[in-house]
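Input structure tokens:
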């Protein structure tokens, strides 16, 4: 409760000081509930942005689910950040006319064409002559990184010069390293720990294939639209994602990448082998992904969409 009260008091100060016309709540709880009370007190409409965890996990909690439905049903607009989020919000009984799907975008610097010495970068990383498989994510169960590691045993039979780079940290890190050790895959793996957003272009440039076979856990926990797929595509790299969460919005299966069953090690292995042994196909997917990102995932386009929605709400 102290968090809600603090946000409410601060919200009043900001709305009045900045002469806010519309209250944008970046998540359903706690900010969405605070937004509702600010809306009633100050006579301002409010918009709520919904994400994967906000719907899939909170909707399963008895008390929190009631607040979630209350916040979304009373909002003037609900922004769904992925197709499956949009479907989930509708299932909660929210008026479909209030729901607007707006996918995430990528930072403009990821869309700039720059000349990069990839060979020099690979030498700097000590991976020259390698086929580079990359995952960049928080190391938690729903990301499916353990399945990729298990798939490597099969992949190296067809792609013996593979190296799998993992950029990220999280509670599953030690478990993943134990799997690597138990399968004697140390020479095919590198853990880089936390990598800053500014450094990520280096990793996207040196990889041949990006993979994140995300899945949905038994408690409903899953990913929204993972922007790492979009970022990797922005660098002309093919991607592999799991059949869960927002992957359907991030990857066009067979056109910008492949969508696989994140629980199926054999399917993951086949996908990796396919794209690392068929360079023309992989390049075609990567280039199609790059063009799609430039056409559909620019920040200014998303800002214009939100501006148009906001402007429409203020017109009588």
């Amino acid at each position: 409760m102290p968090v809600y009260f603090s946000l409410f008091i601060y919200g009043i100060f900001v709305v009045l000081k900045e002469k806010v016309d519309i209250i944008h709540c970046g998540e359903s709880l706690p900010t969405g509930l605070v937004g509702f009370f600010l809306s009633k007190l100050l006579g301002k409409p409010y918009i709520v942005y919904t994400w994967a965890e906000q719907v899939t996990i909170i909707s399963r909690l008895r008390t929190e689910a009631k607040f979630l439905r209350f916040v979304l049903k009373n909002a003037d607009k609900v922004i769904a950040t992925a197709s499956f989020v949009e479907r989930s919000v509708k299932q909660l009984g929210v008026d479909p006319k209030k729901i607007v799907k707006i996918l995430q975008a990528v930072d403009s610097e990821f869309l700039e064409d720059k000349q990069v010495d990839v060979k020099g970068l690979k030498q700097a990383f000590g991976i020259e002559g390698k086929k580079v498989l990359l995952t960049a994510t928080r190391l938690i169960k729903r990301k499916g990184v353990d399945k990729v590691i298990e798939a490597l045993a099969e992949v190296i039979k067809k792609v013996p010069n593979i190296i799998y780079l993992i950029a990220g940290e999280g509670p599953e890190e030690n478990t993943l390293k134990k799997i690597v050790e138990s399968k004697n895959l140390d020479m095919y793996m590198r853990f880089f720990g936390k990598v800053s957003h500014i450094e990520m272009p280096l990793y996207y440039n040196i990889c041949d294939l990006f993979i994140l076979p995300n899945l949905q856990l038994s408690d409903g926990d899953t990913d929204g639209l993972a922007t790492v797929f979009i970022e990797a595509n922005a660098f002309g790299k093919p991607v592999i994602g799991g059949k869960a969460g927002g992957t359907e919005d991030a990857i066009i299966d067979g056109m910008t990448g492949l969508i696989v069953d994140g629980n199926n090690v054999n399917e993951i292995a086949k996908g990796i082998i396919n794209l690392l042994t068929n360079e023309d196909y992989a390049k075609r997917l990567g280039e199609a992904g790059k063009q799609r990102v430039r056409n559909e995932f620019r920040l200014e386009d998303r800002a214009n969409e939100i501006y148009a929605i906001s402007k429409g709400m203020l017109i009588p």
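The chain has a mean pLDDT of 93. Residues 2-105+298-314 form a domain with the Rossmann fold fold (CATH 3.40.50.2000).
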